[in-house]
Amino acid sequence: DTAVSQTPKYLVTQMGNDKSIKCEQNLGHDTMYWYKQDSKKFLKIMFSYNNKELIINETVPNRFSPKSPDKAHLNLHINSLELGDSAVYFCASSWKSSGQETQYFGPGTRLLVL
Amino acid sequence: AQSVTQLGSHVSVSEGALVLLRCNYSSSVPPYLFWYVQYPNQGLQLLLKYTSAATLVKGINGFEAEFKKSETSFHLTKPSAHMSDAAEYFCAVSGYNTDKLIFGTGTRLQVFP
Predict the structure, then answer these.
(1) A50 → chain B, closest CA residue
(2) pLDDT value, residue A1
(3) By the 8 A CB rule, do B78 and B101 touch?
């Protein structure tokens, strides 16, 4: 009965490959997010979706493409992986797209690009 | 524009001592402020948040924070540290017109016996 789940937990891949990370929330939330945490633990938002619609799209390379098939899922596809993409990627969700809403985070996906 | 500054990337305290983690914010709109905790190899968990109600906010695990507009601060405190409090703590800000959470750089809390 995990609230926000991500798969896989660990991902090791070669430069140039394409990979996807999946996220699912069973909280009934309308809004989902992707964050990137770098090696210095700095967290930065990448995208947010509200009811399957893209709301926030930070200055992320277009090699990163989020997809929301329904409001309980937000997947992240990464093309042509680069060394600098190595990081921990967190999915999060909240009731609605509002600044005061609590965001609930998944356990993270640790991506290592070799 | 919004930003958060966490003073001190590392804080060490003895078990039973006061915990004080500092956070200062900058915001062009009335801010909403959050403290999240991250245990090793885990996701972030909300400790507490300020959303323009009471300025003294109580959270989980005995933590509390006080919103001080005049000082643009939202420092996190706990009267008595436990070994289990050792973790990374993040302060974050958003606003009424955005749900984009802007995080600080984090403070690692170490608790010594």
Answers:
(1) B99
(2) 62
(3) no
Mean residue pLDDT across chain A: 93
| pLDDT, tens digit, 9 for 90 and up, residues A13-57 | 999 999 999 999 999 999 999 999 999 999 999 999 988 888 888
**Which chain B positions have a beta carbon within 8 Å of A53's beta carbon?**
none
Beta-bridge partner residues of A43: A37
Q: pLDDT for B42-65, tens place per residue?
A: 899 999 999 987 899 999 999 999
The residues, ordered by sequence, that sit 6+ positions from A71 with a Cβ below 8 Å of its Cβ are A29, A30, A32, A49, A51, A52
Q: Report chain B residues whose CB lies below 8 A from the CB of A95.
A: none
Bridge partners, residue B101, by sequence = none
- Angstrom CA distances, A63 to A18, A60, A109, B56, B93, stand at 9, 8, 18, 43, 28
Chain A neighbors of B100, CB-CB under 8 A: 45, 48, 56
Instruction: State residue A68's pLDDT score.
Output: 92
B9, B44, B93, B94: best to mutate for the A interface, most A CBs within 10 A: B44
How far is Cα A61 from Cα B2, in angstroms, rounded to an integer?
Answer: 23
**Minimal C-alpha gap between A36 and chain B (Å):** 11
Chain A residue at shortest CA distance from B52: A100
Burial B34-60 (b: 16+ CB within 10 A, else e): bbbbbeeeebbebbbbbbeeeeebebe
